[in-house]
What does this fold into?
Amino acid sequence: MLIKRPQDIATSEITQESVFHSRRKFVKSLGLAAGAPLLASSLRANVPNVDEELTPESIVTSYNNFYEFGMDKGDPARYAHALTTDPWSVLVTGEAAKTGRFAYEDVIKGLQQEERIYRFRCVEAWSMVVPWYGIPMKQLLEQFAPNGNAKYVEFTTLYRPSEMRGQGSVFTGIDWPYVEGLRMDEAYHPLTLMVTGVYGKSLPNQNGAPWRMIVPWKYGFKGAKSVVKIRFMRRQPKNTWNILAPREYGFYANVNPAVSHPRWSQASERRLPSTLFNPNRRPTLPFNGYAEQVASLYAGMDLTRHF
Ligand code: MTE
It folds into this structure.
């Protein structure tokens, strides 16, 4: 299997190939005006790119959790073609000056798209390294002018059982739609992205087209896919996995090797590709390796209680 390492992708290739080469696709798919800014994060000193082997694109787009399409890792890639993402809109409500329904193209128009190579750690203890593209969440949210009462922001996923076969299934136990939330300071952190693409292409449906959240220091379940609602709130929103199993999944969900899941340890993880004979196990890093950037957000908090 051909694995491209970040060091094999020269900075010039990131800036000129994967960013600018894919630019036409983005301009087309995202409705960006020609000339809208699209930067590689490697150009931005405050955002680190991970210098580890990239997980092959074939795995990133075929080994997924998107229970709206089924519970098997292969179900999203198998069934998500049924999802229509054009037209797409977002309903913005709550503690903000600009609320209402907005067309996806209008919301992202003119916003900077960046490539970010991040570690991605699922609460199930597997991990990947993924070259995402996206909009810094702060830029996206500031457009709606949240007011001083906005302490949290909630993100809601599409509910459309006619196209999402898993939403008709009783097996997941999930009360659809899938919801997630962040504190405003987490949402505004420079690492937090609304992702619109991966591997230099528009986001495939199974990864959450047309856009999904990525918060690289948290477990993957915080990254709600196919977002249709954004709500600015005074109080902490509920989140799907916490509703389903509050003893197992918290609101914060910061990657933490010291806090075990009740049914398994989080001290180590399997970096994909992982096989029986080569499990590719490695120690889990506090905050998924982003402690330097984000630990201060949680100063004074008991992270065993706020897991
Ligand atoms: N978003 C929605 N709407 N539905 C889901 O089931 N699963 C979450 C998260 N976002 C999920 C979701 C979980 S558990 C993980 S690990 C990641 O998506 C997986 O993202 P990926 O398939 O792009 O790797």
Remarks:
- Confidence is low (pLDDT under 50) at residues 1-38, 41-45.
